Amino acid sequence: MAKMNMIAALNSALDLQLQRDPNVVIFGEDVGYFGGVFRVTAGLQEAHGAHRVFDSPLAEGGIAAVAFGMGINGLRPVMEIQFADYIFPAYDQIVNEMAKLRHRSGGEFWTPVTIRTPAGGGIRGGHHHSQSPEAQFTHTPGLKVVYCSNPYNAKGLLTSAIECNDPVVFFEPKRCYRGPFYGDPHKVPTWNSHPDGEVPEDYYSIPLEQARIVKEGGACTVIAWGTMVHVAEEAIRQSNVDAELIDLQTLLPWDRDTVVESVRKTGRCVIVHEAPKTSGFGAEMSASIQERCFWHLEAPIERVTGWDTPFPHTTEWDYLPSPGRIAEAIARTQEA
Amino acid sequence: MAKMNMIAALNSALDLQLQRDPNVVIFGEDVGYFGGVFRVTAGLQEAHGAHRVFDSPLAEGGIAAVAFGMGINGLRPVMEIQFADYIFPAYDQIVNEMAKLRHRSGGEFWTPVTIRTPAGGGIRGGHHHSQSPEAQFTHTPGLKVVYCSNPYNAKGLLTSAIECNDPVVFFEPKRCYRGPFYGDPHKVPTWNSHPDGEVPEDYYSIPLEQARIVKEGGACTVIAWGTMVHVAEEAIRQSNVDAELIDLQTLLPWDRDTVVESVRKTGRCVIVHEAPKTSGFGAEMSASIQERCFWHLEAPIERVTGWDTPFPHTTEWDYLPSPGRIAEAIARTQEA
Amino acid sequence: MPERLTVSEAPYTIGIPPFRPGEKADFGGGFAEQPGDLNRPEVTCTAQDTATHAVGLIRVLDDEHVASGEWDPKLDEETLLKGLEHMMRLRIFDDRMIKMQRTGLLSFYMRSYGEEAIAIAQTMALEEQDWLFPSYRQPGAQFVRGRDMVSMICHCIGNTEDNVRGRQMPVHYTWKEGRFISISSPVGTQFPQAVGVAMASAYRGLDEVCISWLGDGTSAQGDFHYAVNFASTFKPPVILNVVNNQWAISTHANLATGGRTFAERGLAYDIPSFRVDGNDFLALYAVTKWARDRASAGLGPTFIEVYTYRAGAHSSSDDPSAYRPQDEFECWPGGDPIDRLKGHLIGRGLWDEDKHTELTERIDAEVMAAYKEACTFGDLANGPYPPASTIFTEVYEEVPWHVQEQREELGK
Amino acid sequence: MPERLTVSEAPYTIGIPPFRPGEKADFGGGFAEQPGDLNRPEVTCTAQDTATHAVGLIRVLDDEHVASGEWDPKLDEETLLKGLEHMMRLRIFDDRMIKMQRTGLLSFYMRSYGEEAIAIAQTMALEEQDWLFPSYRQPGAQFVRGRDMVSMICHCIGNTEDNVRGRQMPVHYTWKEGRFISISSPVGTQFPQAVGVAMASAYRGLDEVCISWLGDGTSAQGDFHYAVNFASTFKPPVILNVVNNQWAISTHANLATGGRTFAERGLAYDIPSFRVDGNDFLALYAVTKWARDRASAGLGPTFIEVYTYRAGAHSSSDDPSAYRPQDEFECWPGGDPIDRLKGHLIGRGLWDEDKHTELTERIDAEVMAAYKEACTFGDLANGPYPPASTIFTEVYEEVPWHVQEQREELGK
Ligand SMILES: Cc1ncc(C[n+]2csc(CCOP(=O)(O)OP(=O)(O)O)c2C)c(N)n1
Ligand SMILES: Cc1ncc(C[n+]2csc(CCOP(=O)(O)OP(=O)(O)O)c2C)c(N)n1
Ligand SMILES: [Mg+2]
Ligand SMILES: [Mg+2]
User: Fold this and answer.
1) With pLDDT > 90 as the criterion, what percentage of chain C qualifies?
2) Which chain A residues have any C-beta within 8 angstroms of a chain D C-beta?
3) Domain boundaries, given as residue ranges, for chain A
């Protein structure tokens, strides 16, 4: 075991996959010599060569297309989109092409691309360095969508994503790269003292499609992913409610059994995400839970989310779900 | 009043707007001389000149970007995306640019673009001529999203969309261009004998943000848009349940009062759309209704949707929600 | 280089096509460019050594069907006859499919009419292990690689034997064995993907070139730029073709580009770039062979503008008489690729009208037989179709729970 | 035309920059290109008349700061001094902002260091009614148009007087009055948008040219291709600049393009295309004036490669010593744009070191005063900020019910 922050953990997953599978290649903007603007690929070019880890032209659509083609022809490409906000020029290649290739070709062709991308707010990124566009991928059959939340699951999930023979969009909560975030921008803890900052140096993987129960509880189910897992944890602490906290980890396909079992037990549910509320992935969770747990629900399922506005710069703490807002929602579920 | 199919009605709306506002320009792939592959812009170039109605290069991203720029500088561009499936190369320009311009510039700049696009299945279009990607736009604050369902509302809503100072994505259910579709591909009625095929030749508009109650009823609220409005109507007929049918018309922002009032009255709700279930706009409707009508609900809110797979070609009738599947869902809501 | 026509210079320019319905299509005689005009550089040349090739037109067959010049690939009789046969097969096949479409046995169809030489000559110039990444206008490549015609028709019908399992529209072939990569409807997406395929070949140390095609209209897409720029940057063994058949549905290239040849765009990225007579089997073969040799030598991509004419409708949904003179193709100086190769063979005494008629009849019978056999696996009007369960399979490598639930809900 | 460097030809090519940290940056002397090398064609010329201009380098000031050649715009003293002053203002302003960023008063900053001539000379060559559609590297244009510095700093702070209302990161200026269109972070999106702005000007019969800029790295985006192709097709009054400062964050242009100049890409679309010394105020002014005259005459777009060097870090988040030699800028032959204009003015007896020092001090004071005044409206560390209610306004023209509900939920 070693102490790793999320950057080191992701780097370790990539490094091990480069070692284990000669068909793994990594590319994207500034990922080669420099090692990525967030340093996730630091040292990998030097260790594995410039043909395996390299800088690409500044064109997300081209990066995705080239990864697609490499994947058809035997490679296992891991591409980086520098910020999730910049994934949209590649949207067509991802949702119309990668996602449908296996199906459209009757299983003759497929492409095991992993798309890594830092997402989410809390770094004063304003409109275009803060978005969390997971919902815009969960509507696309053929994709898998993963959102890690800590160093331990970042490494384990990224390992599985790379090994997966379906295209995977892998979101990394950049606010948590160097430490968990509990909703207070003035407290900046590191992963050093966090149990999930203990990361095996060796290879391991965490299955996709598995949620993680962060904390058991009987009074309310709180579902979150990415940075919001930690904010929700803090909210539960503040709420004094014995809530169960689920880190969804994989959003598509999500872990039905863990979620449904929990809500049937607690009869109450709060879903938390940073993205805008309308048509966020919280909507799908709420609708699905309602369909499957209707007779167990004691109170309306609550969503605590980012607002239906672009992501702001100076006022971002008023945008992101705060422990206070989440705690209030948890409290409301107890009133019913 | 005249008899019009949806193509003629849309054409009439465009023609009138070209007449009324010298700043309206129309462009897109094949929309100029030829009048569009679905003939929606037929005759408009001849009537209004090649600088107002013209063919563009085959590049949806470029079309959207150019429309954006025209809109900043005083024009009111109406751009066509030939099939909604091909809107994704323009996705970045729409969700990152158009949607955020007013906000990001402190209200200094905005762009009143209307994006017309034929959507939905039922024409044997397979993967890429059948998708209904409305949900992928409803998650984007700053956009308005409209989905017409018949000639009358097509003309009235398009008129409002063009006059709207916010960017509007306007979906046209291509399966209903020439007639309503009740779920049976072998029966091909025309708009001729349908009351909503009666369309004033003169100018009129239907406000965005207003749903339409197609049929009143007390036992269940059925919510649909586009082609599914007619399929749902047929399902209600077959179900023998006194259901209320709401044609949502505008999805973002949707008509809260009409929907909430209806579900509070009926206590039961079925939402129908063609797009895949997961993270479809039905998820948002279900989640929102559950939040607002929890104590009135007598049964789980049902979603009847396309499957979580790409859209098929030969088996499309097994993909699209059928009157039978919808009727079953309505029946299930009555059992509880 | 062709001249561009425009209606007016104010307020902004709107291009016009050479002719509209009702006008007489008059191209003023044959091509100015003749065989022998352009040299055949070494494959080790620089991109700039092809500067004249990017504005000129590489031809081997002249207007009398005589081959000449440095680009003459000097193909043997067997190869030439194979080429002719494949082109004839493609045309007859297309005609049969269109008839099937008209009678409701297919939902849709797209012919290669007038462009038969392209995929056929180019694929014949490649090696078997090379990857084909086509648009919908290059199905003919499959004949070269020996694909079973019955299987092709079954796909177009979308019946129980469709290897695409009825999921995509007709003409969206996929054929792994022939390294013919699944066709997708969104135009142009395959171009940069092909660059990725070629990079993987290079990475794996394989002598496997990848060839891709897109249309004049499609070259306006971002994907075009990605392909050319990534190819220029990483120099993998890829052959990028812009098939300039002058029309994109109803939009003439004059309306959607501001002049210069398409080939010159490749030059600007330092890629050797050729403009080639797309109805000249020999010229196409020769240029593609050159590109393959260069790629195989590790020298990277070649960019080719294939200059041709879309002789037929865009697709079975299109009626071009609405936007161009009906006799435009006949008036266009490029001729018919089949007639031109046939004329060449006859001129060389390798072929005659009787043989041609006989071969036509033989292929006719072959196509009829294939068509009938394919229909035994179902036709669009009457089925049987792939079972509804095919909706749910191969979405992922394994069927996830939510897709499985839905399959059970459908209960088929 | 510069040569391209690569590590290897197999399996595929990976480019390398001229130098990496630890290496000596040695560019082998000054530019080969000299003032007077290239003629100044009539604005009515064809694109191909600029073929040499697209591979060469238009310069007016030589290495001794002497102006010569047909491109010398022969500007009057006042204009030259204004240009110098604006460039100095921009540099001093940038330095102050970076200091503010280092002390936590700004969240982020991007300097124009080494590239001050570009937006300033080009905007000075335009008319007041012309539209500016910049990337984040052209804020200097605002000084030319007389924007209040306090207002610019308020934006960068995101305080109560920020006209962007704290919604975007610093340097994402918008200034309608100055026709300086809102800057957006996704790189390149403004390029084809600018074509639309120009088409609208033309449509409305207005003599309003639109100018836009993007970077060498950004030219790989689809949006670049859309802009050039739509401009080439519709020929509106637009000036499209690729600012080739050789670096895109850590990625040297050699790693992301396959050679040839950026200017040649415009030529391939039949747009007059120039490669210009981006640190030469006079050359920039002259070429932009030429482009404006052409656009204004209804002759359509001009494409410009502005060849320069990103002297500073990419942004306040970047440390270039990780990927290039720290003295690379000093070794690069293009020089410093301020030094070069200053040298020219001194050479002509219009300026001297004392005046320069005096002006520096005056601007210093001006910037200090503006900075202090701006901080009275709030700084990032201490506020006040725009109220939280600004999150909900201007998302739409009117606040819709769901946004209103959320505003009430936040209760601020
Ligand atoms: C992204 C996208 N936009 C639009 C279409 C609709 N469409 C299909 S083919 C076509 C024209 C293509 O013209 P061109 O590239 O010249 O190829 P050709 O048909 O002439 O072979 C269009 C607009 C599409 N399939 N994909
Ligand atoms: C679409 C998009 N992708 C990635 C980024 C991140 N990014 C910001 S600036 C930049 C480099 C731009 O380089 P260049 O175009 O050369 O402009 P320069 O910074 O040199 O002026 C990158 C990759 C972005 N802002 N937008
Ligand atoms: Mg074409
Ligand atoms: Mg740069």
Assistant:
1) 94
2) 29-30, 32-34, 37, 50-51, 54-59, 61-62, 85-86, 88-89, 124-129, 277-278, 307-310, 312-315, 318-319
3) 2-199, 212-335
